[in-house]
Amino acid sequence: MLLFALGFLLVILQPSTGQFPRVCANMQSLLSKECCPPWDGDGSPCGQLSSRGSCQNILLSQAPLGPQFPFSGVDDREEWPSVFYNRTCRCEGNFMGFNCGECKFGFSGLNCTERQVKTRRNIFQLTSSEKNKFLAYLNLAKNIPSQDYVIATGTYTQMNNGSNPMFRDINVYDLFVWMHYYASRDTLLGGSNVWRDIDFAHEAPGFLPWHRVFLLMWERQIQRITGDENFTIPYWDWRDAEDCEVCNDEYMGGRHPTNPNLLSPASIFSSWQVICTRSEEYNSQQALCNATSEGPIRRNPGNNDKSRTPRLPSSADVEFCLSLTQYESGPMDKMANYSFRNTLEGFADPQTAISNPAQSGLHNALHIYMNGSMSQVQGSANDPVFVLHHAFVDSIFERWLRRHRPMLEVYPAANAPIGHNRENYMVPFIPLYRNGEFFKPSRELGYDYEYLQEPALESFQDFLAPYLQQARQIWAWLVGAAVFGGFVTAVLTVLIRACRKKKGGTSSEIQPLLIESEDYNNISYQSNF
What we know:
CATH architecture: Orthogonal Bundle
CATH class: Mainly Alpha
Cofactor: Cu(2+)
Mean pLDDT: 88
Helix content: 25-40%
Number of strands: 14
Low-confidence stretches: 1-17, 502-529
GO molecular function: identical protein binding; metal ion binding; tyrosinase activity
Pfam families: Tyrosinase
Strand order of the largest sheet: 1-10-11
Number of domains: 1
Family: Belongs to the tyrosinase family.
Structural class: mainly alpha
Shape: globular
Protein name: Tyrosinase
């Protein structure tokens, strides 16, 4: 009870991170298209008086998009967030937030100057006390309303272009469920028409950076509503698992004794209500999910379609995926071949990297295996197993980044599906984050994974891999340089010997310069690439 009381007190005092800032969800802000709230520290917009930031026009990427979305001006998420706001806070230095009142991920302190790296741990390595605290934090988030953010219950057109705001309150946990739904929902085209081939968080290059930001924001939110600044999301390492090891009442809820599709009454999660799971109903009504409760969490792990997902992923699947050198390829969607992203997401075979949407591998395999709320994309975050699963997926992404050490330019700058180019802002986050900003090692964002810190042969191999790969790519140049260097050295040697003979034959009246013979040995040729 003390924990819950503390949480209710802290939520009043601490800001949250999420979607539409409450202070900007009004007619004045929508009509002016400006969201530049004051920072409480000095009362100025974006903390400008304290040099935290300033209100600026949003700079949108002009890079061309892929052909997957053939429309323009029909979806509020196009060129996010310009339909709602075209001026927001641009924060300076290590400041962040919709009003520049927070520190960037990986920084803390009064002026956000203190670097920090926190460790995400295997859920089975937590003590009983730590595990129970994690479960209590989840339940706390499900029962506390977000103080700083609201969700949209209508499109901008349905809001009469801003003159009739349509927003509502939501609890902290469901705020993130709604954001996941909003990023992946279908486009409403009017009448009964929708466009399904669109997703701002999946099936394209932004899948991994988007979920990385999602987890960082969720993690920070839990830290704030509990006052536990050291909290980190645990992960479930599902490699080679024979069943759902976390699906019991000690962890994420066991199976109901009489209804295998529901959770055990002994689990705190059995009383949770899901939201945003009825996509066909929303589409037929041309409406957005308004976060109305839609029943209990459903889960029946292992009783899924075995022809699509015969087993949980193996260690070999993960290792093959990590060996892929291309982050993205071809159409940069679920049909991409030899793409690390598409293979990890699960649309390509984890043994060949050839696209096969009829099968579900790696990330997708877990969702299908859970056979319930997690198996439907838009509402999958309703099941708290979601965060454990995606934390481990993010750790695989992290291993790939460390092994291959890609430059930022490896992330596609153009021609990716809508919302997924490097400089596109991620839907539906406010404050704004670009995809490319999270294509970097996790330690630069303030966190690490316990199992990646252990010094092992695997870590040494990960260290050598990018250099071996680079050597394979430029070996022909190295051989050519060696041959050229040998030729130049031979020519120099001939010239030097010729000069010596010429000087040796000069008149005795002309004295040669006194040069130590070993000085010639210091002459060398170095080729630069």
